[in-house]
Amino acid sequence: MNKKTIISLELIVAISAMSLLAGCTRTDMPNPASKYCIEKGGIHSIITAEDGSQQGICTLPHGTECDEWAYYRNECPDCSGGCPMYSPPGPDWCKYGTIVDGGKNDCGCQLPPKCENVGCPEDAKLCSDGITTVVRQPPYCEFAACPDELEKNYCTPESRKAEACATIYTPVCGWFSQNIQCFRYPCAINAGNPCEACQNENVEFWTEGDCPNTPPK
Q1: How do 133-137 and 142-143 pair as beta strands?
Q2: What separation in angstroms does the CA of 187 have from each of 8, 65, 203?
Q3: b or e along 81-99 (b: 16 or more beta carbons within 10 Å of the residue's beta carbon)?
Q4: CB burial readout 111-126, b (16+ within 10 A) else e
Q5: What is the 3-state secondary structure (H, E, C) of 22-47?
Q6: What would the pLDDT profile of 106-128 be if each residue is shown by its tens digit?
Q7: Hey, is 162 helix, strand or coil?
Q8: Could you tell me the residue ranges of all domains in the chain?
Q9: Residue 126 near residue 133 (C-beta atoms within 8 A)
Q10: DSSP three-state, residue 178
Q11: Model pTM?
């Protein structure tokens, strides 16, 4: 047997060994996401779509269903507290609009109804300062409060040190310090929430709602 024949046999043996190893891949290795679901008291199931693709679902003890890998990465909503209870709206709520279904949140809880397509009367009210005007606001179409009727919430050193503000939208009007010279009234800015208002070093205090309108000149 010559040298070339020996090399060829060694090559065949090596390829055969690799094939055997490839065919011996373990299929009983646990899926970490499935294992995590079961360890946390959930029920694991496989859902097969019409195209043949499969998805692992973890049903948590409180009934929430979530993708197994999303639950493994702590990306599922916490629905352990149950659905919140909402008080029914007043009789005049959405008097000038259309009531629509509020839909459901990520936990499957029913959200309160929404008031859309609100068309409030376009009249305005002049405030006691003789300058500021306020308009009607949905959903009740009542006049917004004048600045002197609003509670002043002064920015604190702690509120100014916040590195990041939450994305919750609760509009406020941030009123500038008296040391700031403004060319028009109101001497303030609209902000998405109190944190954003106090991030502006010129803002001294904030009041709830958008800044008031001024009469045209």
Answers
A1: antiparallel
A2: 89, 50, 10
A3: eeeeeeeeeeeeebebbee
A4: eebebeebebeeeeee
A5: HHCCCCCCCCHHHHHHHHCCCEEEEE
A6: 777 888 898 998 888 889 888 88
A7: coil
A8: 32-72, 83-119, 124-208
A9: yes
A10: coil
A11: 0.39
Secondary structure letter of residue 3 according to DSSP? H
- The region of weakest confidence among 22-31, 72-81, 154-163, 194-203 is 22-31
> Exposed, middle or buried by CB within 10 Å (0-12, 13-18, 19+), for 163?
exposed
**Residue 130: pLDDT above 50?**
yes
Evaluate the CA torsion angle 173, 179, 180, 186 in order and state its sign.
positive
Beta partners for 76?
none
- Tell me the three state secondary structure of residue 15: helix
Q: Which of 74, 59, 67, 68 has its CA nearest to residue 31? A: 68
Environment class of 107 (CB within 10 Å of its CB; exposed 0-12, middle 13-18, buried 19+): middle
3-state DSSP helix/strand/coil % of the chain, to nearest 5? 20, 25, 55
Residue 172: strand pairing partners: 191, 208
Residue type, 182: C
Average per-residue pLDDT for the chain: 80
Long-range CB pairs of 104-111, under 8 A, 24+ apart, other chains included: 105/77, 106/77, 106/79, 107/64, 107/77, 107/79, 107/83, 108/63, 108/64, 108/79, 108/83, 109/79, 109/83, 109/84, 110/83
Integer CA distances (angstroms), 196 to 107, 109, 160, 177, in order: 29, 30, 9, 16
Mean pLDDT throughout 148-161?
A: 87
Mean pLDDT on 59-86: 82
